[in-house]
Write a structure and sequence with these properties.
Blueprint (H helix, E strand, L loop, with lengths): L5 H36 L3 H29 L1 H20 L4 H15 L3 H11 L3 H32 L9 H15 L13 H24 L4 H23 L13 H31 L4 H7 L1 H21 L2 H21 L5 H27 L7 H28 L6 H28 L3 H26 L1
């Protein structure tokens, strides 16, 4: 990629952020629309879970393939394809005649979405080469998540209440068209000097692993954990995981380069991403159903209730990026784990839903924690990794986020589906284990943040970077010979 002026670099950042905006808006807007969709389509809780998890599962399964494909064929080219497919998928979702069609079209959306965020992050990584400037750019990137969370529930509530749930998919089309035009005009093409070959077997094993695990969790409340069907899918997930690890270790150019995980900060960022987004997925899913089905709020009312959480995310995300750039990832991660864990404890132990003041306090705490966690995840995932494989490295972090969100919705939904009946008291009682799960995610972030940001962890990152640098030099020497 040629050296760009400062103004052009930040224009590229703004264009990449547009892609994040439509993907993030799609998640937050859809959550507010769930009760209306459930009523019109006659869907169960597990049906609503699939409208979210069908998307996140396909997204998680294809992110690493999209990252490596972009490194090979051109990041700008794949980014453009992603914008077109995502926009078309959104339009199809708005026309879905039933739940099955909606789930299928959500999968089409996800195919496009898999080509957006990791590829955009790869473009940003290769555009902003100076570490401090890159950290700030990633902070802006994280701030867009907050903006989408703040705007999504309100926009979704207005659209659902005035037009209907189908309209929540319409907003992706004009934003996608604008991003497409600006990308064609301003974003330069870039490729990896030595991209990886496509790993078909690895890709199929990832799909089998994620699909079977999520299916087992979502369907277990209805079928029973001891049923033959659920046990078969759990076994398939375990076999797929073992086969994936064994196969990828033997490949010269694997879909998932397991050597990345020699770096403790990278491994920590991957697990923290799973925990943080599992908490977010469960938090949004549970609160949407509670506010509308139990408190009886409208879609707009539910969106307005969640503004304290979304607003604090939008405020803290760019601050976290600046903090990572100046002080490193340790402080944001420790604070994020503390605030997210405190929010979960407030709901689990003190039943914060019973009073509006405590409810909003819990929302504010969660928003602060989630706002702080995104920038250190992304920065740590790409720091020390070879720029030539930026698409794959950032895709691993993005995949972890989507896996986390899928598991959060699946697990929290399974907890609720196991015993929810009409009435606030029952909902609060059944939801208490779910809130303890969210509190546990916060505790895990706190612990991992402390363990993977110290001197020992930094040493492992340096050794991993040296390993890749040695391989790169060996490759150059072999090419010259």
């Amino acid at each position: 990629m040629p050296e760009l002026s400062r103004r052009r670099r930040f224009l590229v950042l703004a264009i990449c952020c547009l892609s994040l905006l439509i993907v993030s808006l799609d998640n937050t807007v859809l959550n507010v629309a769930l009760p209306s969709m459930q009523h019109e389509l006659g869907a169960s809780i597990s049906g609503m879970q699939w409208t979210i998890d069908a998307y996140t599962l396909v997204l998680a399964s294809l992110l690493m393939l999209a990252g490596s494909t972009a490194d090979r064929l051109g990041r700008r080219r794949i980014f453009l394809v992603g914008l077109v497919v995502f926009s078309v998928g959104s339009l199809l979702c708005s026309l879905a005649p039933g739940l099955g069609w909606l789930v299928a079209f959500r999968m089409v959306q996800a195919v496009g979405g898999s080509m957006l965020n990791p590829v955009a992050m790869s473009i940003i990584t290769n555009t902003f080469t100076e570490p401090r400037e890159r950290a700030r750019a990633i902070g802006v990137w994280g701030g867009v998540v907050g903006i989408s969370m703040a705007a999504g529930p309100v926009i979704g509530g207005l659209l659902v209440q005035s037009v209907g749930w189908r309209s929540v998919f319409w907003i992706n089309v004009p934003i996608g068209a604008l991003a497409l035009f600006l990308t064609l005009r301003y974003v330069p093409e870039s490729r990896a000097p030595r991209p990886r070959r496509v790993d078909v077997v690895g890709q199929l094993l990832v799909i089998a692993l994620l699909g079977s695990l999520t299916y087992a969790i979502i369907e277990a409340p209805d079928a029973g954990w001891g049923s033959t069907k659920i046990l078969a899918f759990v076994l398939l997930a375990l076999v797929s995981l073992a086969a994936l690890i064994g196969y990828e270790r033997r490949r010269d150019e694997p879909l998932i380069d397991l050597r990345f995980f020699h770096s403790a900060p990278f491994s920590g960022a991957t697990v923290i991403a799973v925990c943080a987004f599992a908490a977010l997925g469960g938090f949004l899913f549970m609160n949407t159903l509670y506010l509308q089905n139990v408190r009886g709020l409208s879609a707009l009312g539910a969106g307005l209730y969640m503004l304290p959480m979304a607003g604090m995310t939008g405020l803290c995300a760019p601050l976290s990026g600046r903090l990572v750039g100046s002080r490193g990832p340790r402080i944001p991660l420790l604070l994020a784990g503390t605030f997210m864990g405190a929010s979960g404890v407030l709901f689990a132990a003190f039943e914060a839903q019973k009073t509006t003041a405590l409810l909003f306090t819990g929302y504010v705490l969660f928003g602060i924690g989630f706002g702080l966690v995104n920038a250190p995840i992304t920065n740590t995932a790409v720091s020390g990794m070879p720029r030539a494989q930026a698409g794959v490295a950032s895709a691993v972090a993005s995949t972890s986020r989507q896996i986390g969100q899928s598991l959060g919705v699946a697990v929290i939904g399974a907890v609720l589906a196991g015993g929810v009946r009409p009435g606030a008291g029952t909902f609060l009682a059944v939801g208490r284990p779910a809130w303890w799960i969210i509190a546990g995610c916060g505790a895990a972030i706190l612990l991992l943040g402390a363990l993977t940001t110290g001197r020992w962890a930094r040493d492992t990152a340096r050794r991993t970077a040296a390993l890749f640098e040695e391989e790169r030099r060996g490759g150059h020497a072999a090419a010259k010979a």
